[in-house]
Design a protein that fits this description.
Elements: H1 10-27, H2 53-74, H3 79-102, H4 116-133, H5 136-156, H6 173-182, H7 201-218, H8 224-245, H9 258-281, H10 289-296, H11 298-314, E1 316-317, E2 321-322, H12 323-332, H13 338-362
Antiparallel strand pairs: 1-2
Length: 369
């Protein structure tokens, strides 16, 4: 490893911070009826910049697995301690996700079981186990095997009552599995499928493994320029393959299709290569400080942002308007067009979160699980 990689990668923290900031931005518009298209998910198949956020985060989780667990093993940590840490972290992240899904009423009969943090927990667990028990070539084979198996399963195994290869919201095999397994515990806004469902978590693990493999590359003895170039080239190859596969298995975030995994994984590789070149090689860091602050407390930031958003919707003002709605109407929509007011609200929401995280950063408080 080069001297840079014996320390914490600032570029990875910044990448994580940019990703979580993007997630908060798109999750908290002033009005869901007025949003610029890049800040919305694709209606179904296809993609927008918003559809890159979650796979980028899973990719980062994978990179962190290799860097953190690899270093821990080198320092002589016992396998038992490592496994216990993985299990503990998985359960805590999953439990936080369930808590946020239930907050504040916790109606257990309709509590959504899947979720963003739940998927992160599951992918972290399986990717960590694979990392600890296999070599690089085997990890590559497993990632490819997961993508091909999922493609064959979704394209050639029909959901009862639907044709094989049906990729609609209701007719796809992953949608059927979600309805059958989770019932009333799926995402209430979709009802017939869950965007973080059970079957689609299989290729999501492959997304995390792409990150694991990237972590291996970063830990090699290659020069920093070779590492950046390698990530960019492999990323371009993944993007090309994913785009080509799109013709047969459309890019689709909700189904987390195999083409989506390669396309977004390739873009994640290229974006990390850019951050690595700009920050860790060239040393241009001052612009990235807010994102580093976000990245060092990502889970805490996600939880705080989710709770604030919930409270803005729960607290009522005057004739029944929510506090969030009142702020949007009186603070932003009073001077800006609806779509710009909605964007301004979202940006201010991110800035408020930045202020809270900056307090933790200044006090050297980093909440880990």
């Amino acid at each position: 490893m080069t001297p840079t990689e014996t320390q914490r990668l600032v570029s990875l923290d910044v990448f994580r911070g940019i990703t979580i900031a993007g997630m908060i931005l798109v999750n908290n518009p002033g009005s869901w009826e007025h949003i610029y298209w890049p800040l919305e998910h694709a209606a179904w198949s296809g993609w927008t910049p918003t559809d890159l956020v979650f796979p980028f985060f899973l990719f980062i989780v994978g990179v962190s697995i290799t860097l953190a667990l690899g270093k821990r093993l080198e320092l002589g940590g016992s396998n038992r301690d490592v496994y216990l840490k993985i299990i503990k972290r998985t359960l805590i992240i999953f439990a936080i996700g369930l808590f946020l899904n239930g907050f504040p009423y916790f109606r257990l009969a309709e509590l959504r079981i899947p979720g963003v943090l739940q998927r992160i927990a599951v992918c972290y667990f399986f990717a960590s186990i694979i990392f600890l028990n296999t070599k690089v070539r085997t990890q590559i084979a497993i990632a490819i095997g997961l993508l091909l198996s999922y493609w064959l399963l979704v394209k050639f195994v029909p959901a009862p009552g639907f044709a094989a290869g049906d990729l609609t919201r209701e007719g796809s095999l992953p949608s059927y599995v979600d309805r059958t397994v989770f019932g009333a515990h799926v995402w209430a806004q979709a009802k017939v499928y869950d965007p973080e469902g059970l079957l689609s978590t299989i290729p999501a693990i492959a997304t995390t493994l792409i990150g694991v493999l990237t972590g291996h590359w970063l830990r090699t003895e290659k020069t920093r320029y070779e590492k950046a170039a390698g990530m960019f080239v492999v990323g371009a190859i993944c993007v090309a393959i994913g785009w080509a596969w799109n013709a047969f298995f459309p890019i689709n975030k909700a189904l987390w299709t195999s083409s989506y995994v390669l396309f977004t994984g390739g873009l994640a590789l290229q974006f990390l290569a850019f951050c690595y070149w700009l920050i860790d090689i060239k040393g241009y860091r001052r612009w990235a400080k807010p994102f580093e602050v976000f990245g060092l407390n990502a889970i805490a930031l996600y939880v705080v942002a989710d709770i604030i958003a919930s409270l803005l919707g729960l607290i009522k003002i005057g004739g029944g308007d929510s506090l969030g709605g009142w702020i949007y109407d009186h603070v932003f929509a009073s001077w800006a067009s609806p779509v710009n007011a909605s964007l301004a609200f979202a940006i201010c929401f991110v800035l408020v979160c930045l202020g809270l995280m900056w307090i933790l950063y200044r006090r050297r408080i980093f909440l880990k699980v």
